[in-house]
Each structure stands twice: as structure tokens, then as C-alpha cells.
Recover the amino acids of this structure.
């Protein structure tokens, strides 16, 4: 991954997906004029325009694209130019119906929406390379083009295909991963249920089976599907690098836990020149701004702490949920500036002008059906002005102050069938621990399990491992070293259980975490739906827990709380292990809300992190660097709040507002 967009070519990005192919020419003039009025600096162009640009195989219509890119350039608006490879045209599928993906049940999906792609189709790959080459040849050195937008949201709406082309590609991928059939049989544990393979040709994708399909076969298929799509991204990227040297190449991620979980973004981040992300609020009754903060922190983390860009969010409601409330006045700016506070180089939207036709005509946009007389438009213009004043933010970065482990591979493994409880949910634990830290006004940097070697306890006094079911053996030494050097580690149940092949680590649970935690787990005893257990501390507090209980056997750790009822009554529920200069905490049940927060507070005290004193739902996030220190105070409450600045002064943040305080230099 290289670094930022070229500083001299792009101010803080503000704009959105622009789909002029949906509109007559007169509208284009108005679009460009209004973009200028709104302070738009960059638009994503041509994401879905393959059929418009290549209406018949080998016949190209460049005139419209030449014209609109010219108009944007003349107006000083930069272009994030897309390869339209997420939407092969109807003529393509007519000629190559086997490029349409097949479900696990053998159903071939049809043309008529978008993203209907088998990533193993040689015909698709050839056609994608061809249109990418043509576009790059034509616009690769156009001065308006500052970023390449490959495809759209790989993984959505479908990543995995189970067709015969994929079966053949899977066998090659397996030969590469495992080397020999013996190694594959060992890794997949095929001795169980008599599944040994004697020839590569016998192996199929994990299609619908009578009962549970081999878990490692499923896990490897998920990895394979991710790798196939990634290879197709890399193929386009390499064409763009060759024909458009110096212009960074991205593809829009969807790292939010509620959005796309079928992609291993740690692996993808290593392939893009700039990490970009799309984020949409999910109205599920929880505080949407907490999910937003998590997503922004996670995006910054996959970008290695470097710059990233919010490539899409919504000005107001979306239209793909069962119920799509409009954003409240001020909410769009709070959302946008929260992403910027957490490291984004701007704020972009889906989409510029609201469509009159098609599947997304009720999705909000910068320029709504109602036109320029609307609240949304007024707020869009105001946000453009605000971002315009923050241009020198680009030389600053956001730094987290606590660490968490995040692993898509572990989540894939854990989500397979026949676990001790079907309610085990790694994402829920990750989000709950994040929320507890967010409520203590801490900014989280996430790490892959392979990324914690040498983690500095001074820089990150706290490291949380909410549910790392599948943990590589290397994690053990890295965590022990972190704790021994003074770190405070918090591990939650059902972590460290299996290796990368979903094979249980040898010896008692929790496998590779036994030594660092100073305990073993003899037996799991998950709770039934609605069942609760009580956890009591030696000092008289009691917490209510659900979902999970287990029999913990201390082996060097101290017991801070025990189960006081239920099947595991009398056994430890919360332990603490002193190791070298640090401590390792273990929580053997699911605490939520205030109970989880209380335990997090105990660990924070161990880590020497003092309470912030800020009110709930007020964020204070710092970006710093060459151009100074910017403190973003984001007030999600409906009351005015006061925040204390480093010089001791008290500053006022009105209800629902964002204030950016710049330290005097
Ligand atoms: C995604 C897509 C866009 C649009 C939005 C709507 O992020 O990339 O094309 O469909 O969702 O929310
Ligand atoms: Zn396929």
C-alpha cells in the first residue's frame, strides 16, 4: 500500500458517485454548476457505465465520457474514475451465461441487477481486462483523474460461486495452499466421517450436503472466494498502474461489521494504493454513531494508521433496509466529520443526484428529488464549506490509544455450524467491547492476530481480545511478550480454541492462551436462550450474565469473581494473571452494558488509563501532524456541553454540533 492521494492534486475530498449516464445533457450543466456551489472537489464517475461505454462488444462510445470529464475538469472538479467491471452488460452474459454465479444449491443467478459475477470465469476476466485497458488508455494521463475506482464493493452482493469453473480453480488453489493431498486430508481432518480424498478431482466446492459439510472445506472455500476476487482486483490494478502511472488505485471496502464480512480486508489493504470505505448507518435500535466510530477506526487500522477515504455514505436515509428514517438536522455533518476525525481524507456520498429510475430512487443523495430548496441541500452546501476550511488536515493522522484484535478469518471459522451454542457471535462481542471503550472516550486501533508482534505497552496500555476463536499459534508468544513488558490484556471467552484449519489446539482449552491467562477451561456450558447466571466479586458486587458459562481451572491466575448460580456455580468467571510487568484478564461469560463496562474499568485501572471526565455521547478525537493538532469535539446529545482543552480553557459545543479546535502553534 502506498500513501495518500497526491497532496498537490486533491484537497480534502468532497463529492459523491456521479452517474451522468442517467441524465440528459442539460442536466450535466446544472450538475457541474451546483457541484461548484456545494464545494464538491471530486466525484466517482462511471461505476456502473460499462453498457454505456461499450454498448456492443468492441464498440465504444467515448464521446459522453470525454465530454463530462472535460466539463468537470474545466470546473476544477477531480475525477475518481471507475472501471465498470461490477456490471458486465447484457450482451456479455448472452454470450457467456456461465459467468453468472451459482449458489450452493446449484441455482444460477440471473442478469437484471448488478454484481452477478463468477470470479473464476475466464470470459469475465478477459472482458474486464479489455474494458479496463481501453479506459486506462484513454484517460490514464487525463489531468482530472486523481484516483482509480476499481469495480464496486467486492463481496457484495455475492462473493462466492459454486460452479464447475470455480470447482476447478478451487482444486488449483488447494494444491497451492496444502501442497499434497496428504496435507489436505490432514488439514481438513477428513478421517472424520470417512471423507479422505485420493485424487484432487474428487474435491468439490462445499455445495449443499445432507448435513454439516466439513468445516475446514467451508473455511478454505471462503478463503478461496476472497482470493479469487482479490486476484481479479490485482489484475485490473496492474493494468491501471501500467497505463496510468502515478495515479493511485483503490476499490471501495465495506469494513463495517454490519455490512460485508466475506472479505478479509487485512489482505486487501496490502493490495490497494489507498484504502477507501463505504459506510451506511444501520437502524437496529443501537447508537448508530458508535458503529460509525468503530467502522472508521477499523478502516484506519486496515490502512495501517495511514490515510484513508470515506468513499460513500448517505446524506440522509438509505432505501435497502425495512425502514429507512431520514437523518436529523445536523446528523449528516456529525457523521461526515466523525469519519474525518478518525482519519478520513474527506467525505463522499452515494450519490450526487437522486435517481428517478431504478432500484435506488428512494436512496437519499446530495441533490435530492426536491432540489436546492431542501434541508439536505442546504446542509450539503454548509458541509462543503466546513470541509473546505479544513484542507490542511491532510498532513495529520489519528492515533488510537488502546488496541483490539480483529480477525475476519476467525469470524468465518466461528460462524460455521455445530458450535457449542448457536448464539455465539464474535461480532457482538467485538462491538460490545468497542462500545465500552468508546464510552470511556478511547480511540481504538485494531490489529490482525499476526500484527501484534512487538506491540508497545507504553503506546497501547490495553489490548482487548473479545473473541478470537481461531488463533494462530504465533499469537501465544506475542501476547505473552506484550503482557510481560507491562501490557494489560483482556480476553473474553471462546478465544484461542482452534488453529487456522479449525483444528482444536492440542491440550486443554483455551489452547494457545492457556499460559498467558494462567488457567485452563475444562468444559463449556453455554446457557439456554433467556437463561441468566449471576457473577459475584469478592467485594460484594454482582453482575448478571447470559449466553455462556464454563468451568475454569486456575493455574497461576487469581479469581476476581465467580459464578454464584447455574451449572458452573462456584467456578471462576473473571480472573487476572500477573505475568512479568503486566496482567492478563479473562472473562468466562457474557457481560453486557454496565456490567461489561465495570469490568473494563477494572482493567483500565490496571492499565493506568484514567477516566476522561467527558459526558456520554460526546467524542473528542485528535488528529495531529505537520500542520498542527486538530481536536474534533462531536456532540451527539441534544444539550450543549463543555469540553476542557489542553490549556485548561473550557469550550462550548452546542447540541448536535461539531467543533474543531486547533491548538495554537
Ligand atoms: C453501496 C453501493 C452504492 C449504493 C449504495 C446505497 O455502497 O456501492 O452503489 O448502492 O450502497 O446505499
Ligand atoms: Zn463460479
Amino acid at each position: 500500500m502506498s500513501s495518500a492521494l497526491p497532496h498537490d492534486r486533491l484537497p480534502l475530498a468532497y463529492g459523491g458517485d456521479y452517474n451522468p449516464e442517467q441524465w440528459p445533457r442539460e442536466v450535466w450543466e446544472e450538475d457541474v454548476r451546483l457541484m461548484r456551489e456545494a464545494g464538491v472537489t471530486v466525484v466517482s464517475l462511471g461505476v456502473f457505465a460499462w453498457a454505456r461505454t461499450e454498448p456492443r462488444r468492441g464498440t465504444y462510445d467515448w464521446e459522453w465520457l470525454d465530454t463530462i470529464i472535460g466539463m468537470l475538469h474545466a470546473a476544477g472538479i477531480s475525477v475518481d474514475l471507475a472501471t465498470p467491471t461490477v456490471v458486465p452488460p447484457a450482451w456479455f452474459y448472452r454470450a457467456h451465461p456461465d459467468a453468472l454465479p451459482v449458489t450452493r444449491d446449484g441455482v444460477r443467478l440471473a442478469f437484471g441487477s448488478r454484481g452477478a459475477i463468477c470470479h473464476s470465469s475466464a470470459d469475465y476476466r478477459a472482458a474486464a481486462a479489455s474494458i479496463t485497458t481501453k479506459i486506462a488508455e484513454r484517460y490514464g494521463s487525463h489531468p482530472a483523474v486523481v484516483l482509480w475506482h476499481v469495480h464496486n464493493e467486492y463481496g457484495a452482493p455475492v462473493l462466492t460461486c459454486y460452479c464447475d469453473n470455480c470447482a476447478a480453480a478451487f482444486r488449483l488453489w488447494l494444491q497451492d495452499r496444502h501442497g499434497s493431498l496428504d496435507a489436505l486430508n490432514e488439514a481438513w481432518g477428513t478421517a472424520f466421517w470417512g471423507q479422505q480424498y485420493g485424487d484432487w478431482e474428487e474435491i468439490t466446492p462445499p455445495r449443499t450436503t445432507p448435513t454439516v459439510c466439513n468445516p475446514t472445506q467451508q473455511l478454505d472455500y471462503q478463503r478461496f472466494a476472497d482470493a479469487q476476487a482479490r486476484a481479479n482486483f490485482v489484475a485490473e490494478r496492474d493494468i491501471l498502474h501500467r497505463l496510468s502511472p502515478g495515479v493511485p488505485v483503490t476499490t471501495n471496502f465495506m469494513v463495517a461489521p454490519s455490512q460485508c464480512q466475506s472479505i478479509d480486508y487485512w489482505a486487501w489493504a496490502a493490495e490497494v494504493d489507498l484504502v477507501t470505505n463505504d459506510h451506511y448507518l444501520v437502524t437496529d435500535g443501537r447508537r448508530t454513531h458508535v458503529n460509525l466510530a468503530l467502522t472508521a477506526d477499523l478502516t484506519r487500522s486496515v490502512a495501517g494508521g495511514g490515510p484513508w477515504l470515506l468513499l460513500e455514505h448517505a446524506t440522509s436515509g438509505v432505501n435497502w433496509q425495512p425502514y429507512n428514517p431520514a437523518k436529523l438536522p445536523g446528523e449528516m455533518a456529525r457523521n461526515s466529520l466523525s469519519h474525518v476525525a478518525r482519519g478520513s481524507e474527506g467525505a463522499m456520498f452515494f450519490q450526487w443526484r437522486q435517481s428517478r429510475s431504478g432500484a435506488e430512487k428512494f436512496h437519499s443523495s446530495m441533490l435530492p428529488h426536491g432540489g436546492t430548496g431542501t434541508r439536505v441541500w442546504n446542509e450539503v452546501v454548509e458541509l462543503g464549506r466546513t470541509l473546505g476550511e479544513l484542507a490542511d488536515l491532510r498532513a495529520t493522522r489519528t492515533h488510537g490509544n488502546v488496541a483490539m484484535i480483529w480477525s475476519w478469518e476467525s469470524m468465518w471459522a466461528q460462524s460455521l455450524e455445530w458450535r457449542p451454542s448457536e448464539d455465539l457471535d464474535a461480532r457482538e462481542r467485538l462491538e460490545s467491547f468497542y462500545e465500552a471503550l468508546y464510552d470511556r472516550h478511547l480511540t481504538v486501533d485494531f490489529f490482525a492476530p499476526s500484527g501484534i508482534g512487538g506491540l508497545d505497552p507504553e503506546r497501547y496500555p490495553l489490548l482487548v481480545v473479545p473473541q478470537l476463536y481461531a488463533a494462530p499459534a504465533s499469537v501465544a508468544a506475542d501476547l505473552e511478550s506484550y503482557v510481560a513488558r507491562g501490557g494489560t490484556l483482556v480476553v473474553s471467552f471462546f478465544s484461542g480454541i482452534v488453529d487456522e484449519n479449525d483444528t482444536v489446539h492440542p491440550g486443554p482449552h483455551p489452547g494457545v492462551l492457556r499460559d498467558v491467562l494462567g488457567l485452563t477451561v475444562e468444559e463449556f456450558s453455554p446457557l439456554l436462550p433467556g437463561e441468566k447466571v449471576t457473577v459475584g466479586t469478592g467485594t460484594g458486587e454482582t453482575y448478571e450474565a447470559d449466553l455462556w458459562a464454563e468451568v475454569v481451572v486456575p493455574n497461576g491466575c487469581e479469581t476476581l469473581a465467580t459464578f454464584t448460580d447455574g451449572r458452573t456455580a462456584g467456578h471462576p468467571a473473571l480472573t487476572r494473571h500477573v505475568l512479568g510487568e503486566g496482567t492478563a484478564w479473562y472473562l468466562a461469560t457474557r457481560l453486557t452494558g454496565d456490567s461489561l463496562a465495570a469490568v473494563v474499568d477494572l482493567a483500565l485501572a490496571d492499565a493506568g488509563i484514567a477516566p476522561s471526565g467527558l459526558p456520554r455521547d460526546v467524542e473528542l478525537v485528535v488528529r495531529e501532524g505537520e500542520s498542527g493538532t486538530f481536536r474534533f469535539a462531536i456532540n451527539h446529545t441534544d444539550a450543549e456541553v463543555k469540553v476542557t482543552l489542553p490549556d485548561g480553557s473550557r469550550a462550548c459545543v452546542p447540541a448536535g454540533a461539531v467543533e474543531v479546535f486547533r491548538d495554537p502553534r
Observations:
- The CA atoms of residues 315 and 489 lie 39 Å apart.
